[in-house]
Amino acid sequence: MIDSRLLTLRTFASCGTVSTTAELTGYSPSAVSAQLRELQRSLDMQLLVKDGRGLRLTAAGRYLVKRSDTLIAEWESIKAAALRAGDQTPTHFGMGGFSTAASNLLAPLAAHVKRERPGVQVHVLEASPARCLDLLVAERIDLAVVVASQAEVDVDGDPRFEQISLLNDPLDVIVPADHAVAGNGPVTLEELSGEEWITDVPGTPYHDLFTAAFSALGLTPRVSHEAAEWDTSTALVEAGLGIGLVPRLASLEGARNVVRVRIAGQRRPTRKIVAAVRSGSAGSPLITESLAYLRATAQEILASRLDDES
Amino acid sequence: MIDSRLLTLRTFASCGTVSTTAELTGYSPSAVSAQLRELQRSLDMQLLVKDGRGLRLTAAGRYLVKRSDTLIAEWESIKAAALRAGDQTPTHFGMGGFSTAASNLLAPLAAHVKRERPGVQVHVLEASPARCLDLLVAERIDLAVVVASQAEVDVDGDPRFEQISLLNDPLDVIVPADHAVAGNGPVTLEELSGEEWITDVPGTPYHDLFTAAFSALGLTPRVSHEAAEWDTSTALVEAGLGIGLVPRLASLEGARNVVRVRIAGQRRPTRKIVAAVRSGSAGSPLITESLAYLRATAQEILASRLDDES
DNA sequence: TCGATCATGCAGCCATTATGCATGAATGTC
DNA sequence: GACATTCATGCATAATGGCTGCATGATCGA
């Protein structure tokens, strides 16, 4: 409902060049250039000035971008309240999340919504946290479940999003069943720093989490193997080629001869899993309902962990 | 900046049928129908329901229209603040007003702006109060000077506008120089109820004002002649064909052998002249400046009247 | 000075959107 | 009760607007 040219300006503000804006938005550079020119013309305002071979926002442009967040949030809030005022529910509802979230949290949620609201077409989409947020902004989905630290943008501070904490998902070590620490109580990463590790290829969200876990302790693990999916890395562990870190949420169904060992210590690595919605949209009936359901599901997961530990 | 389809919905909300919306917006009925359908599709919301052979807004639709006023006002306010933040002034500035306002208030203002801001292209447009407000909403002009009672819409109560009172413009009687009341002090309309009157054709803003002045006193004047412009009616008065009412602001330059006589009484007819801007836009540099100038001009006019009366 | 990296303008193309007429439904009228 | 009106809407056609791809000019680094 808000003019797309303003959204283009927002993208430009966050990346700084016309070409990159074009890549991010999917337009051609000429289109972005034309849009920005047209925006300035129709607003009768100078938003950009030449700066070397690039462009720079003027004070007016910066201000416009800053306030546009609140404008968009208000629009979302109006939409949500209109649905409530008319006692309506949307016919389409999209949610996105990364792999483990999709299976553990979104799948039950989607089933719940389909059951409670048979008229609603529910759409689940699995994608990386960063991509989920992009899709959220682009209104391709209405709800995202992401790992706060893997989102590239600061979900908490970004005015485009509202964040709802769901649960802290600690990382466990998976080792072969005959490993020295198998069956023990919690171990520290220091104890395992000499091991050969299996992780994902650099540049992936999980790899970043992996290295962050060690560098927080001043350690640099020896990485012997790289695997993209849990099943693969589990197989590598089974084969005795090394050990790995897996989030508690990742089930190891079907994995034989490996053991999950908890990590001890104050600074043990965890993923903070949060739900994110477009600012202002939290009041929309389906979203309010979904967030409540997600919170409940997260509580159940936490409760079942306590049972395990007792 | 706000999607045009939402503006179309607003127009529909105020007039109630697709055909009239088409007339008011300049679209064809099919276009309006398609826009409303598309709006509902993209919002995934039912805004309209069939009602007889027409359409009716749903609760959600009514709510959306109501809140869209605040959204548009916020956007105006953002634009205004962005201009201030960047210390910019628009290059175009449009103002509209009805005849006497245009000459007495807008002409000096336009001259003032041109003098103070040589870079600004000032555009003055003379139109009826009702049309001025339409042009204001359509962003064809940025400032309107209207008669509050002639605007068809309630300028004060309409959230689309902000109103600034300028002055009360009383109506005087113009009579031939040899008329019985010429040169007297104030007269009452009752005294003149037997006269033959000259006014505008029915349906015009001035005619409405004319009849309102009499019906407020329970009188029905005898209308002998109808003239669209002050010059014409003045000529008719000069010719001894009747007498008329003219606002104080209307100068009678060039009129010979006619006399302006003030009207006495508590309920003497006046026009309330106000400046109107789009809600939120009052903070824009040119508008702030212009409103101050208009207020000052109005004060000068009032002051010169006091001088006359002393 | 050369090459790389920008933004921008222009010709051509495609998609979105409006138009005009025909249709169907609902209402009031004689 | 038949007819004329007044609505909204759908479809085929036409036009407008917006995007792409390439060429150009400007700026900066080597």
TrEMBL record, chains A, B:
CDD domains membership: PBP2_LTTR_like_6
Keywords attached to this entry: DNA-binding, Transcription, Transcription regulation
Keyword check for Transcription: yes
Molecular function terms from GO: DNA binding; DNA-binding transcription factor activity
Any Pfam family hit: LysR_substrate
Span of domain HTH lysR-type: 1-58
Highest taxon of source: Bacteria
GO CC field: protein-DNA complex
Stored Gene3D superfamilies: Periplasmic binding protein-like II, Winged helix-like DNA-binding domain superfamily/Winged helix DNA-binding domain
Keyword rRNA-binding included in the entry's annotation: no
Protein family (similarity comment): Belongs to the LysR transcriptional regulatory family.
Name of the featured protein: LysR family transcriptional regulator
Species classification: Bacteria, Bacillati, Actinomycetota, Actinomycetes, Micrococcales
